[in-house]
Design goal:
This protein is of the alpha+beta class. It has a single domain, classed as Heat Shock Protein 90 (2-Layer Sandwich), CATH 3.30.565.10. The protein has a 5-stranded antiparallel β-sheet, with helices on one face. The longest helix is centred in the middle third of the chain and has 22 residues. 34% of the residues are buried. The model has no long low-confidence stretch (mean pLDDT 97). The structure holds adenosine-5'-triphosphate and magnesium ion. The site of adenosine-5'-triphosphate (ATP) has 24 residues, from helix 2 and helix 4.
């Protein structure tokens, strides 16, 4: 499947306010791509959870929010990148209920359930890249 990127907006994620900006951008692009109200809520929640993870676990990074198209479908892709510590135990982090920050440990597993495609590239000391896509359904 070839994914065409129609528009891309890359933002720094360094402050709580940046998390809000990424969330708003995700919401606006999802709306523009014709996602349902339910799908918009899902991608918006994933946007803030994944941006919050950049802040909480890596201190800073970037978020790219993209309008994409593939096979006549329209969607939103988001890429969160950081050069933080990486995730040592990815299966455990994805299982949910595991947090190195004394939090609930639900951001990653919850985000995964809320999107259509979810990929993580991470290794200890190598940072983390999380890519998610939500497609519009007609
Ligand atoms: N970008 C990241 N860099 C490094 N570690 C991360 C990153 N994102 C997630 N993790 C690791 O995965 C764990 C699980 O992430 P998850 O978002 O589910 O929980 P949390 O952020 O700890 O708590 P919350 O429920 O508030 O999101 C984190 O505690 C952290 O150890
Ligand atoms: Mg989290």
């Amino acid at each position: 499947m070839t994914i065409r990127v129609l528009n891309r907006d890359e933002m720094a994620v360094e402050t709580e306010h940046d998390v809000v900006t990424v969330r708003r951008k995700a919401q606006a692009v999802a709306h523009g791509r014709g996602l349902s109200t339910f799908a918009i809520a899902a991608i918006t929640t994933a946007a803030s959870e994944l941006a919050r993870n950049v802040l909480a676990h890596a201190r800073r990074g970037t978020a790219s929010v993209e309008a994409v198209a593939a096979d006549g479908r329209s969607g939103v892709r988001m890429v969160f990148r950081d050069d933080g510590p990486g995730i040592a135990d990815l299966p455990r982090a994805l299982a949910g209920g595991y947090s190195t920050a004394r939090s609930l440990g639900l951001g990653l597993s919850g985000s995964r359930r809320l999107v259509d495609e979810f990929e993580i590239e991470t290794a200890p000391g190598k940072g983390t890249v999380v890519t998610v896509i939500k497609w519009a359904r007609f």
